[in-house]
Write a sequence for this structure.
């Protein structure tokens, strides 16, 4: 029997997983994870049924959406099913997709493919409490423990959500909210009654087009530079630098690069984490000669900007080397340093 996923739930799962897609007719369009060909994996927006126009013939790669998402993300199929349907539906094989049997795909593989537009969402004020309010005290205490004054975080609209014991970081652009990220303030691991421990997710995205926007995007307005970090705490620690944004992950999507260029900044300081150096190189190539590019080398013993004192971050950021396209080793121009 064919299973259909709720269309709104499907889009939420795709966005939460940070998957990049485009649109054509009634389908989401992806790069196929098997043949690696762009715009070949199509997934119905109303049912989730998918097929790769190449691999459907050669490998039978078509069927229920969870099988495509398993291949694209590497997550366990039971976890994917729980997110799609609200239950694990523990039947079928992880590797062999269940073919939906559509004889005729409604969309034309040669049809025009477009980038999806972001849609603003409502900020649930009744549930979220500003961290500079009495109801946000627990969130404020956690921020202070991480070296971020609650008053500074409040400037970014950071809120506290008691029901999830989480800080909430809004993704806003032009004053409009396009989603938010929860950051659980409890320890990363929780102990079960049998004494074992399981990991607790650090970040949960909500209605967030992660690959199309950066956290704190409005900080770019009027700034001559951008400080590009991975997570919200890294970005908050760069508050005194201005132009501080977070990509919400190591990968920097093309739409995020386009947003940086549209903002009009002339310099980009890449403060991605040390384990994201390949992404720094890709970011440098995609920006090309459009901006002056600097790579922030966080001094030991700190692992990232989020571990540093806020007042020390500007000296580190503004004394970093210019990195030229095609050069992996930094080249210093001392006269361009900012004291």
């Amino acid at each position: 029997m064919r299973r259909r996923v709720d269309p709104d739930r499907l889009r939420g799962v795709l966005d939460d997983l940070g998957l990049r897609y485009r649109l054509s007719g009634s389908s989401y369009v992806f790069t196929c994870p098997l043949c690696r060909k762009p715009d070949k994996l199509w997934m119905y927006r109303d049912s989730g049924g998918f097929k790769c126009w190449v691999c459907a013939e050669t490998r039978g790669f078509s069927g229920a959406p969870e099988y495509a998402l398993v291949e694209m993300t590497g997550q366990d199929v039971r976890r994917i099913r729980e997110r799609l349907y609200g239950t694990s539906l523990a039947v079928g094989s992880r590797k062999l997709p269940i073919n939906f049997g559509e004889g005729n795909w409604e969309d034309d593989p040669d049809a025009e493919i477009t980038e999806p537009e972001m849609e603003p969402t409502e900020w649930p004020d009744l549930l979220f409490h500003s961290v500079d309010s009495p109801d946000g005290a627990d969130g404020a205490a956690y921020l202070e423990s991480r070296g971020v004054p609650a008053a500074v975080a409040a400037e970014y609209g950071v809120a506290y959500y008691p029901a999830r014991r989480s800080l909430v970081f809004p993704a806003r652009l032009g004053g409009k909210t396009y989603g938010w990220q929860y950051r659980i303030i409890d320890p990363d691991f929780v102990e079960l009654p049998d004494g074992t421990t399981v990991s607790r997710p650090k970040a949960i995205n909500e209605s967030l087009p992660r690959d199309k926007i950066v956290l704190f995007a409005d900080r770019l307005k009027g700034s001559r530079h951008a400080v590009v970090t991975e997570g919200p705490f890294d970005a908050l620690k760069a508050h005194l630098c201005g132009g501080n944004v977070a990509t919400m992950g190591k990968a920097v999507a093309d739409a995020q690069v386009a947003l940086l260029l549209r903002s009009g900044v002339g310099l980009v300081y890449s403060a991605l984490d040390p384990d994201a150096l390949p992404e720094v190189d890709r970011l440098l190539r995609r920006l090309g000669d459009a901006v002056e590019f600097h790579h922030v080398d966080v001094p030991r013993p700190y692992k990232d900007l989020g571990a540093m004192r806020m007042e020390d971050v500007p000296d580190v950021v503004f004394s970093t080397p210019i990195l030229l396209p095609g050069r992996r080793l930094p080249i210093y121009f001392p006269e361009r340093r900012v004291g």
